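hey
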């Protein structure tokens, strides 16, 4: 068992709060992602779990043991850093064996464990090389191997793929997911990359300014963002957000010169929101091109971005700029008029920055 529990954890540096009474649980064998922008406190959480920093307040439990009262070397945790933290004067074999030798494990067992992990990570051919002779992806595998060979209760990953190019990051995501399925280890993984979070995480914890914004599965974080911060941070391209007011009848949404028939879209007036200031969110892929008879919004195309697998149109409606994904439909040209529709269940409504249901 290796279940982690964070209870009202706070951390200050020089009187400045970095974490503000955060609480969450990671189940045994769960792959948990801490996601958020730079400076949100996510790496500090890992350092507190590992014992590299001391909490200002709160408690950390691993199973039933109070972890934050133990020195780092007693916590049975493996930490994989962004910069790999390999010993440059040692071979790959020696890097993998180092922690085992420190624990006094007999040489025969050390060699067996190192070779088992090398086979698992497909780095057996690299065991005699020094880190400087390895590629970025190979160094990352060795850093991962140093953690695996110890067989700890829990793995902590701090932006482990951020130094790799895009293609290598994608392949390493697949590799990490494969290893997790095979080993069933408990993992807490920090990243600012939403692609990593959405593809790897069984649970995503989104942090901003030292506070938890939302906890949930990838689909929940993406399709039901709890607030505007989550809606803006998750999704590429960024969600379209329109700030405006619903009229006193609860039907028409006004955003600058733009008027949208919300009441008609939902097939009833939004009476309880009548007269309220709202933010309306629409993801680019939730627009659908139509022939105009059932159009909910129309605009003039400014530019087309053709990425091969995806194609996007930036268009303006009543001087308001929006982005729509076009799919495999015939491409309009800049200056063309396009008509779009959207389903009511694909709209996101926010009031005072928080998600609301219509």
């Amino acid at each position: 068992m290796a279940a982690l529990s964070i209870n009202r954890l706070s951390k200050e540096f020089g009187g400045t709060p970095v974490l503000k009474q955060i609480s969450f649980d990671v189940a045994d064998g769960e792959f948990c992602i801490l996601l958020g922008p730079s400076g949100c406190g996510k790496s500090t959480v890992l350092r507190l779990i590992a014992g590299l920093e001391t909490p200002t307040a709160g408690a950390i439990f691993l199973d039933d043991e109070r972890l934050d009262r133990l020195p780092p070397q007693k916590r049975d945790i493996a930490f994989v850093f962004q910069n790999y933290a390999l010993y440059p004067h040692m071979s790959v074999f020696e890097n993998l064996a180092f922690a085992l030798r420190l624990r006094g494990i007999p040489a025969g067992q050390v060699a067996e464990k190192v070779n088992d992990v090398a086979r698992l990570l497909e780095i057996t051919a690299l065991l005699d090389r020094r880190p400087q002779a390895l590629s970025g992806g190979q160094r990352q595998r060795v850093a991962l191997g140093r953690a695996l060979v110890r067989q700890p209760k829990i793995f902590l990953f701090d932006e482990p793929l951020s130094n790799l190019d895009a293609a290598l990051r994608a392949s390493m995501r697949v590799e990490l997911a494969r290893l997790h399925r095979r080993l069933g280890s408990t993992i807490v993984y920090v990243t600012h990359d939403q692609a990593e979070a959405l593809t790897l995480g069984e649970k995503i914890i989104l942090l901003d300014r030292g506070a938890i914004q939302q906890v949930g599965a990838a689909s929940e974080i993406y399709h039901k963002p709890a607030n505007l911060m989550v809606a803006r941070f998750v999704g590429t391209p960024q969600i379209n957000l329109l700030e405006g007011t619903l009229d006193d009848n609860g039907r028409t949404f006004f955003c600058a010169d733009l008027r949208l028939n919300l009441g008609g879209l939902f097939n009833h007036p939004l009476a309880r929101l009548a007269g309220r200031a709202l933010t309306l969110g629409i993801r680019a892929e939730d627009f659908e091109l139509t022939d105009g008879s059932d159009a909910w919004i129309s605009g003039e195309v400014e530019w087309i971005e053709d990425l091969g697998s995806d194609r996007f149109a930036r268009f303006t409606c009543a001087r308001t700029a929006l982005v729509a994904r076009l799919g495999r439909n015939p491409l309009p040209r800049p200056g063309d008029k396009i008509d779009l529709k959207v389903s009511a269940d694909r709209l996101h409504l926010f009031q005072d920055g928080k998600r609301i249901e219509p």
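DSSP finds nine helices and 21 strands in the chain. The radius of gyration is 25 Å.
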